[in-house]
Design brief:
Length: 437
């Protein structure tokens, strides 16, 4: 008898329609045809693409860097098999409306798009594909974020970064040798975008327990198999360990599918992502470029700290902040201040609602604390994992002055209507949320 337990193969079961949704007990369906995560996909590229039935004319979209890493190989494999249009974007393309418009034009004769890249190229392709109702698939070049399987794209329109509806991929293809050879910072970013599972779940659960907002267990159950691998030996990701990289690749795919089944980013984007969004919007223009997951790593530590402290302090006394639209416009400018006010209004507490909430907290405190705590990873564990992986853990390590970062933590909650521990901490006078703006 082998003492080695067989892995339950959550992803395989999910793709075959055999994975039981813990929220309703029936098999969960996901909007994707094929996920291939293999040590090498060399020689399989054409079969993978043609198995999707995307059409006869295919645009393979890369930039100069990702073409060198993998795009050329995909083009060679597809040449003669399909009508091929190679589209090579200039170096370091931006996921903005202008680039998307030129990509759409370049792909106008194609039936489908095949992206070869990571965050930016994937966002551009899924957004462009959705605009024309075309299918798309992606060959990943880095394990840097969880957007491969999500159904929205981060596109900058008129200087504002927006999350816009996009096509989910028909297929996601991950060659572990390619992912392992990605720049170290991109691997660290993917780890950061994965470890926020605990803070995002804690925030979403808080909102569910306290305000009765809808909540799903499925997206977290999907990730349970792989998270211990990432927490226990994060350095393995950088030593060419294919099982560690497989765990990260699966986590990124399943995290994106978790968002897709919830029709929103709730399971993977809460307070820590609000802090990261604030940084995206307001960081000094001369700051160097940092990856989304690097920012999320630092913000996850902040959220984990706040969550632990709020839960340890006992049932909080609440006071509603007498905030006005004018004050938010003073902080963020007229446009962004106005849209923040609309988001914040959805969760702003009147004094009456505040005292009702305080009573609810007092009545249910032990239940709330125990169910939220069960979802959390201790902040010191997260810090140790990030340090062992060489991820950033401080504002300075993502190019930010501590004072700017502190203001991001205080103000991030105004960016979105989601109720998180940032709101509970602010209303209960937590020191990280209460200094003047
Ligand atoms: Zn993210």
């Amino acid at each position: 008898m082998s003492p080695v337990a067989t892995a339950p193969d959550t992803l395989g079961q999910l793709l075959r329609g055999e994975w039981q949704d813990p929220d309703c007990g029936t098999p969960l369906r996901v909007p994707i045809q094929v996920v291939a995560i293999e040590q090498s996909l060399a020689g399989l590229e054409a079969d993978l693409v043609t198995s999707l039935g995307l059409g006869r004319r295919i645009a393979v979209v890369s930039d100069i860097a990702t073409r060198e890493v993998l795009g050329e190989r995909v083009e060679r494999a597809l040449a003669g098999v399909v009508g091929l249009t190679p589209v090579v974007l200039p170096p370091q393309p931006h996921a903005d409306a202008t680039t998307a418009a030129s990509l759409r034009h370049a792909c106008s004769q194609a039936d489908a798009l095949v992206a070869v890249g990571s965050g930016t190229i994937n966002d551009l392709c899924k957004y462009t594909a959705a605009q024309d109702g075309k299918p798309y698939a992606v060959f990943a070049t880095a394990p840097s974020m969880n957007g491969y399987t999500s159904q929205n794209a981060a596109i900058t329109v008129g200087g504002h970064k927006k999350s816009l509806p996009a096509a989910g991929p028909a297929g996601v293809f991950m060659d572990l040798a390619v992912l392992s050879a990605a720049p170290t910072r991109m691997i660290r970013a993917g780890l950061g975008d994965s470890l926020c599972r605990s803070t995002a779940q804690a925030d979403w659960l808080l909102s569910h327990c306290l305000l009765g907002t809808p909540y799903r267990r499925a997206p977290f159950a999907l990730l349970a198999e792989d998270e211990p691998v990432l927490l226990d030996d994060p350095q393995a990701l950088f030593h060419g360990d294919s099982e560690a990289m497989r765990a990260l690749a699966r986590t990124l795919v399943l995290s994106g599918l978790g968002m897709a089944i919830c029709n929103g980013s709730y399971p993977a984007s809460q307070g820590e992502h609000l802090i990261s969004h604030f940084i995206d919007m307001f960081a000094p223009a001369d700051r160097a470029v940092y990856f989304h997951g690097e920012q999320v790593a630092v913000a996850t530590l902040t959220m984990a700290q706040i969550q632990e402290e709020v839960l340890a302090a006992g049932p909080p006394h609440l006071r509603s902040e007498p905030l006005t639209e004018g004050e938010l416009q003073r902080r963020f400018g007229p446009d962004i201040g106005g849209s923040c006010w609309r988001e914040f209004s959805a969760k702003r507490m009147t004094p009456k609602a505040c005292s009702q909430l305080e009573r609810r907290l007092a009545d249910r405190w032990n239940d709330i604390r125990s169910s939220v705590s069960a979802a959390m990873v201790p902040v010191e564990r997260i810090r140790a994992v990030l340090r062992r992986a060489g991820c950033p853990t401080t504002p300075e390590e993502i190019g930010l002055a501590p004072a700017f970062y502190a203001s991001a933590v205080r103000n991030a909650r105004f960016l979105r209507d989601r109720y998180t521990f940032l709101d509970l901490a602010a209303d209960s006078g937590h020191r990280a949320l209460t200094a003047t703006a």
